[in-house]
Amino acid sequence: MSHPRIVCVAIIGKKNSPLHLSTFTDSKDALSFHFLVHTTLDIFASRMPSKTNGDSDFGLLYAVDDELALYGWLTNTGIKIVVAIETPVGGEVEGGMALVREGDVKGVFKALQTAYISLVCNPFYENDETRPIESRRFLMDVKRIAEGWRPGVTV
Fold first, then answer.
1. Residues 102-138: pLDDT tens digits?
2. How many helices (H) and strands (E) does the chain have?
3. Which among 38, 5, 24 has a CA at the least distance from the CA of 108?
């Protein structure tokens, strides 16, 4: 039985510059995910005025077909985190899609935000939003979080 899994994690800077993009699938190339993540920026912008309660979770941004869903998170400093989850048809389904609850994704966002905070709090890290993040530790943390996630399991 197949289960939902994270296939892409993206970190986007305050000025909408791509800081990081990791893919965890062979079915699509990284360029496809760059396009998908780029399209989420419009959704972040359109929902921004209604986010007055301080909640960082933007929830489901949109779904592509029935097999891919993109979720969003906005940090207090304006950094956007986007996670793409592949939801194969079959297994535990509701309405044709494997069941992924928004609460399942919040743990992933909190773990990714913690990894990002650890990165920028490092006194030797130069926080430059014009270049991609190249920290090996951060990349390993993102990979560990993405590959270890399953619905209902805390990361």
1. 778 899 999 999 999 999 999 888 888 888 999 999 9
2. 3, 7
3. 5
